[in-house]
Amino acid sequence: xxxxxxxxxxxxxxxxxxxxxxxxxxxxxxxxxxxxxxxxxxxxxxxxxxxxxxxxxxxxxxxxxxxxxxxxxxxxxxxxxxxxxxxxxxxxxxxxxxxxxxxxxxxxxxxxxxxxxxxxxxxxxxxxxxxxxxxxxxxxxxxxxxxxxxxxxxxxxxxxxxxxxxxxxxxxxxxxxxxxxxxxxxxxxxxxxxxxxxxxxxxxxxxxxxxxxxxxxxxxxxxxxxxxxxxxxxxxxxxxxxxxxxxxxxxxxxxxxxxxxxxxxxxxxxxxxxxxxxxxxxxxxxxxxxxxxxxxxxxxxxxxxxxxxxxxxxxxxxxxxxxxxxxxxxxxxxxxxxx
Amino acid sequence: xxxxxxxxxxxxxxxxxxxxxxxxxxxxxxxxxxxxxxxxxxxxxxxxxxxxxxxxxxxxxxxxxxxxxxxxxxxxxxxxxxxxxxxxxxxxxxxxxxxxxxxxxxxxxxxxxxxxxxxxxxxxxxxxxxxxxxxxxxxxxxxxxxxxxxxxxxxxxxxxxxxxxxxxxxxxxxxxxxxxxxxxxxxxxxxxxxxxxxxxxxxxxxxxxxxxxxxxxxxxxxxxxxxxxxxxxxxxxxxxxxxxxxxxxxxxxxxxxxxxxxxxxxxxxxxxxxxxxxxxxxxxxxxxxxxxxxxxxxxxxxxxxxxxxxxxxxxxxxxxxxxxxxxxxxxxxxxxxxxxxxxxxxxxxxxxxxxxxxxxxxxxxxxxxxxxxxxxxxxxxxxxxxxxxxxxxxxxxxxxxxxxxxxxxxxxxxxxxxxxxxxxxxxxxxxxxxxxxxxxxxxxxxxxxxxxxxxxxxxxxxxxxxxxxxxxxxxxxxxxxxxxxxxxxxxxxxxxxxxxxxxx
Lengths: 339, 504
Fold this sequence. Notes:
The complex is a heterodimer of chains A (339) and B (504).
Chain A: H1 2-9, H2 32-54, E1 60-61, H3 64-75, H4 81-95, E2 99-100, H5 102-117, E3 132-137, H6 144-157, E4 162-167, H7 174-185, E5 188-190, H8 198-211, E6 216-221, H9 229-245, E7 252-258, H10 264-276, E8 280-284, H11 295-302, E9 306-310, E10 318-320, H12 323-330
Parallel strand pairs in A: 3-6, 3-7, 4-5, 4-6, 7-8, 8-9
Antiparallel strand pairs in A: 1-2, 9-10
Chain B: H1 5-17, H2 24-40, H3 45-61, H4 70-86, E1 100-106, H5 112-125, E2 130-135, H6 142-153, E3 157-158, H7 166-179, E4 184-189, H8 197-210, E5 214-220, H9 227-238, E6 242-246, H10 256-264, E7 268-272, E8 280-282, H11 285-292, H12 298-308, H13 311-322, H14 328-337, H15 343-350, H16 355-361, H17 369-378, H18 382-386, H19 393-403, H20 407-428, H21 431-445, H22 459-462, H23 468-487, H24 491-499
Parallel strand pairs in B: 1-4, 1-5, 2-3, 2-4, 5-6, 6-7
Antiparallel strand pairs in B: 7-8
């Protein structure tokens, strides 16, 4: 409900257009977990409706049909056939041939899912001294620039000074987009000419951060598909340029993953990790109906943790990822005891 | 586990192929792999079930036929059903006499704005005058982005930076278009979530007040299971006329296309296959189905070749190839033509059985790799180009030194040429059937089997398998050798000249 409240609360008229950029619409103040849950609510609703359907009146018989339907529900989260089969088989082992209650099954699913997703809660790791350099990468349209705006907002709220590097010199008006955000947030921005070398923007952004003793430097990069070898090599180069200036930079390389992405997310995680050495994922656009389940196989295969989730279009709509919360929120309504 | 739809299908077919007789049991095994593969390809679960039911019925019903190669029959059934689901095609924009209004809608980041530019380019190619309308008032700088694209193409862009109301912007734009004798207006709407009721209503208002003739849903080729939900919501809100799928130039399996088609029932119009503004292709279900099945997309391949090579040159080349004279020089000419970012990879992806190879190759042409290959050929003598078999170790070293590459790269190039030549020859055969046959023979001979001996170690050519570290190391090594050569005086230069074809 809160999701819809928020949506209906922001009529298009009250939206800030690009030119009236400075003021931000009033967003309801919510705890980080409140936002997290509210972002996942629609997801949870869809999934739960399905799960509830499995249990007609008082419990359900765990037979082949039940397991097939459970598998379908899990598949719809985009977690992929592998993890879905693992969870289904666990339910099968535990309950096959028995009449069970929804809560019993849910508990098993959650335990298994938590096991698959287990990770420490990991916010940004800040540099011991000097600016913390964060590089943001991802495929076209995954939400990099918006996520950067959200990250910068978060850092500003923590009282840190931020320098943004507009490293997307390729896409039309990408620099303007980030510049508008920088003005809104009150962050400094380093830009380069269209089609100029993004590595030089990276260099200057880090240099600027050093010069002004900024706390954080966030570098945007152009969207690219992980199969574009030369563009992936460009990322490695950008990385090297930054390492030259600060030994352990970039301190974080965040892969922005669109929650609507399917199994290609795995390939994205692989490709970007190889080229840019990703340290974590920002799972964007989790406020829609997509479930972002592809982070489950990604976590399993590459041990790449999800650090933040994006749950809306406003600069504040970023929440720290928490595996337990993620799993709980998915099933929050169906099992009131563990919400 | 995470093989592509193509790979999965292929392994399904292999398991069928291995068995002499098609029984219900092994057919089910094969179909189960197909099903698994479709799920991995992000086809929605329900659509997979629907598809598998249709295919199984047909496949099991036909098992009594005494076909020589029953797997071929199953492949045929699977493929036909895929074509069925994805078709029929309708790549027309249904332009009307006076003014046609096209509206693009979709989720955030699906590629609407870029697609606007691509559609304009396509219209310009057909001498139709388009106008772009910046109706995305949400995303910062979206208007600027459209203006930049408009400038690149020389297409007028209508925008009203002060406005907060996309409905009015669109209405005003249409008025302006009528004054300016524009033939097609393309509305670039803001990305929105299908569950965002307010914004969906706004879209409906644009729909009812501006009355677009064509409404297209733009969907990211990497979309997962959610494709069903969003496509359904947009279709219910707007009555879509078509679908455009973007970002199909990567390694995504694009299974979402099956889902979207299934729930909306509207034709798939175009597919986006690159970041450049000419990378929009009319959708062909048979091509897509063949591609999905790993049979390759010959028609698409020929189209691609046509686009970059002029007719005369093409005929000359075909004649040469037919005569069995596809030399490294021709290969070089081809490379030069295809030294366009992403094109080579796209073509390799379209080639039958080449899906994996294209993956290994990456986009060889994008930056230096294609140029390097050309450099290697440039360092060969005419005799070597005509007959690479004469290249012995000493010639190889000379060529490598001349082109500034490792000797293994020369080997790789020759191997690549060896691989290309028979394909080219096969394709020069008359008619599609001949082409398919040549390719099938190649496939069966194992020549195109990526696991075979052809491309065992493509790293030399492509650099793809090298980690950045290894690359840096190699580069240093090369530089060291260069320095050493220089220190030796003029000797090194002599080597280079020896490798230069112009001296022969």
